[in-house]
Structures are given as structure tokens and as C-alpha cells.
């Protein structure tokens, strides 16, 4: 007499982990929903922390010229305002994520933040309000400009990938 195949055995007849698949099939739906709710609460707490950090960065960037002699007046006159816009926009978006944590909403917001971030770092690169000759040799200035270019490239790639994700990837994602 042949043993009747269970659902998990019929799916994976040669799978040595058949017992695992059987336990997945028997997973308690309430536990699964509870785990999803916990991860949602964790994400919302993370959005709150990110908003608070961005608001703190506004104050830190405003105080930077007084704390160090590396920055010149160009920083407060021509660079600070762009970074303030970036930090405020990022804080606002993170607060919005607390109330509307959906993929279709997060993707365009990430693109907007990436574009603002690129503009802020490009503005920093163009104006270059730093004078590192007081703390290091003149080559350090060149190295730091190279680091800024690298950051610009990474932000640019991020913005492009967010754009294409928005166009093509959203239709393949679940709406969490």
C-alpha cells in the first residue's frame, strides 16, 4: 500500500527539506500578521528617528562655521541654505512615511530627495567653501574634492535607479 503524498511532498518530491515546507504551509496566520505589524512599527520608528536626525542636522550645519576654521563665509552665504532645504525636505518626507508607508508613495519621494541631495552636493562642489590648508597640506583639498565628486556620482546613480524603479519596478512590487 502506497503512502498518500502530502501537499508539501507533492510540491517538492526530491527536496530533503520537505518537512520545512510542510511547516511553512502550516504557519499560523495570526503570527504572520503580528510579525508584519512589528516590522511596520519598526519602520515607522525608523522614519521618526530619521526626521529627528535631519532636524538636528539643520542646527549642526548652522553651527559648523563657529566650531571650525575650515569653512569660509561662502558656506553660510551660498551653501547652507541648500542643505537646510535638503534636511527639511528629508524630515518632512520621513514624517509623511509614518502616515503613508506605501511603495507607490516612497518611490517618488526618494527620487525627489535624491534630486535635492544632488543639487545640494553640486552646489557645495561648485562653491567649495573649505580651506583645509590650516589643518593639512594642499593635496588634502584635492582629495576632498575627489570625495565630493564620488558622492555626486553615487547620488546621481541613486536618482537614476529610483527613476527607473518608479517607471518599471513598481508594477512588480506588492503594495505594502
Task: Explain this structure.
The protein is mainly α and 176 residues long. It has one domain (31-172). The chain is 77% helix and 0% strand. It has helices at 7-11, 18-25, 29-67, 73-99, 103-127, 138-169. Helix 3 (29-67) packs antiparallel against helix 4 (73-99), helix 4 runs antiparallel to helix 5 (103-127) and helix 5 runs antiparallel to helix 6. The model has no long low-confidence stretch (mean pLDDT 81).
- The backbone outline, from C-alpha atoms, is globular
Mean pLDDT: 81
User: Which secondary-structure class do the elements indicate?
Assistant: mainly alpha
Query: Number of domains in the coordinates?
Result: 1
What share of residues are in beta strands? Answer: under 5%
What percent of residues adopt helix (DSSP H or I)? over 70%
Major β-sheet annotation: none
The first-to-last residue Cα distance is 47 Å
Radius of gyration: 25 Å
SSE pattern, N- to C-terminal: HHHHHH
Task: Please tally the helical runs, counting DSSP H or I stretches of 4 or more residues.
Answer: 6
Amino acid at each position: 500500500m502506497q503512502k498518500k503524498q502530502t501537499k508539501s511532498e507533492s510540491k517538492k518530491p526530491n527536496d530533503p527539506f520537505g518537512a520545512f515546507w510542510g511547516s511553512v504551509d502550516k504557519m499560523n496566520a495570526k503570527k504572520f500578521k503580528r510579525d508584519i505589524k512589528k516590522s511596520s512599527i519598526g519602520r515607522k520608528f525608523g522614519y521618526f528617528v530619521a526626521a529627528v536626525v535631519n532636524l538636528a542636522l539643520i542646527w549642526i550645519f548652522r553651527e559648523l562655521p563657529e566650531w571650525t576654521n575650515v569653512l569660509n563665509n561662502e558656506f553660510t552665504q551660498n551653501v547652507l541654505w541648500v542643505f537646510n532645504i535638503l534636511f527639511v525636505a528629508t524630515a518632512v518626507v520621513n514624517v509623511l512615511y509614518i502616515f503613508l508607508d506605501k511603495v507607490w508613495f516612497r518611490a517618488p519621494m526618494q527620487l525627489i530627495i535624491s534630486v535635492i541631495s544632488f543639487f545640494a552636493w553640486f552646489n557645495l562642489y561648485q562653491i567649495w567653501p573649505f580651506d583645509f590648508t590650516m589643518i593639512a597640506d594642499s593635496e588634502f583639498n584635492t582629495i576632498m574634492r575627489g570625495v565630493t565628486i564620488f558622492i555626486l556620482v553615487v547620488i546621481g546613480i541613486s536618482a537614476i535607479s529610483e527613476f527607473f524603479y518608479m517607471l518599471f519596478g513598481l508594477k512588480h512590487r506588492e503594495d505594502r
